[in-house]
Amino acid sequence: MSLFKKKTILYARLESNGSVLYSGRWNDLPLTEEVILKKSVEFFDDSDPCYIHRNAVRVRLISELEGMKSEKDRFLEALSEWTGLGTVDACEFTQAMK
User: What whole-number distance in Å separates Cα of residue 26 and Cα of residue 81?
Assistant: First the structure.
């Protein structure tokens, strides 16, 4: 029996017309500065967020995206808007143990 618990890491691959827009850790998904600032004002009334508020916004947005997974069109639209990568038409998830 191991003293250390293995951690599952979620990876995402975002595509547009078969071209890969992003491939990496789900929690590292790029979010635009505009979205971070807009949501910081919405969540915290803070237009110049420190790294703590920036991270809190990031965590909340990733969580909101996870909640949208079952609504494919809404999920892909939010990914397209929030990442600034262009139109995302497919998202595939994989998991790995660390």
Answer: 16
